[in-house]
Amino acid sequence: xxxxxxxxxxxxxxxxxxxxxxxxxxxxxxxxxxxxxxxxxxxxxxxxxxxxxxxxxxxxxxxxxxxxxxxxxxxxxxxxxxxxxxxxxxxxxxxxxxxxxxxxxxxxxxxxxxxxxxxxxx
Length: 122
Description:
By secondary structure, this protein is α/β, with parallel strands linked by helices. 22% of the residues lie in helices and 38% in strands. A hairpin with a 7-residue loop joins β3 and β4.
């Protein structure tokens, strides 16, 4: 089981604004914060997400083929999360809609270029 996912950022305040907005929609608070790292999640809850400036001091880069999927409670929340991402510096990677039988998702990138989606199955 995955405990949390960490994504790199070159601008922590900008990343914090983006992820704070998504986390608010998902009712997921910040659970840990340091000068170069912020994590959102619920202790003993589902997988969390974090953003960090790379420990080695080098620039954060995007992993080709890497994507983080945020599980939404329904299609309407997928739509809201996608809209929140767009309103907070995200870029479009595929508007919300059906992606095969029983799978509904919207794809976007955060301000650092990390790819995410919001999805619901069923």
